[in-house]
Amino acid sequence: MRTMAFDIGDKRIGVAVSDLLGLTAQGLDTIQVRSINSSLDEMEQLIHDNEVTTVVVGYPKNMDGTIGPRAEKSIRYKEALEERLDVTVKLWDERLTTMSAQRTLLEADVSRSKRKKVVDKIAAVLILQGFLDNTAHKTSL
């Protein structure tokens, strides 16, 4: 039973997947957004290929907790995945994950061109790891 996370962006979608025990997140891929349907086709294939049972979609609320255009886009992807697949799809508050991923890459002295290629994947890892840690914490109580 694996969990997969998607960081939905305008140009790219970062993808991360958990290990079989659901303890750690690893960056998997980046999907180039050409259209919502082509993106959903690629997401569906990755979900099937990795035997995923739970999908986490990053949900970028505004800092004041309101819902903006990017969060609405995440909701549309969540609903489309639920219609296409027999998996649990959850939204996960991902405020500042992309900024955190950028900071991590800057601290690691990764060049700008390389950062652009992996920042979405790193953001997906942060989303998934936060979800996994929260889920593990709740089950251990």
Automatic annotation (TrEMBL):
Pfam families: RuvX
Highest taxon above the source species: Bacteria
Keyword Zinc-finger appears in the UniProt entry: no
SUPFAM superfamilies given in the database record: Ribonuclease H-like (SSF53098)
Cellular compartment(s): Cytoplasm
Main location: cytoplasm
Record-listed E.C. numbers: 3.1.-.-
Coiled coil: none
Keywords, in A-Z order: Cytoplasm, Hydrolase, Nuclease, Ribosome biogenesis
The keyword ATP-binding belongs to this UniProt entry's keyword annotation: no
Cited InterPro entries: RNaseH-like_sf, YqgF, YqgF/RNaseH-like_dom, YqgF/RNaseH-like_dom_sf
CDD domains for the chain: YqgF (cd16964)
Ranges where the YqgF/RNase H-like domain occurs: 1-101
Function: Could be a nuclease involved in processing of the 5'-end of pre-16S rRNA.
Family: Belongs to the YqgF HJR family.
PANTHER family linked to this entry: POLYNUCLEOTIDYL TRANSFERASE, RIBONUCLEASE H-LIKE SUPERFAMILY PROTEIN
Name of the protein this chain belongs to: Putative pre-16S rRNA nuclease
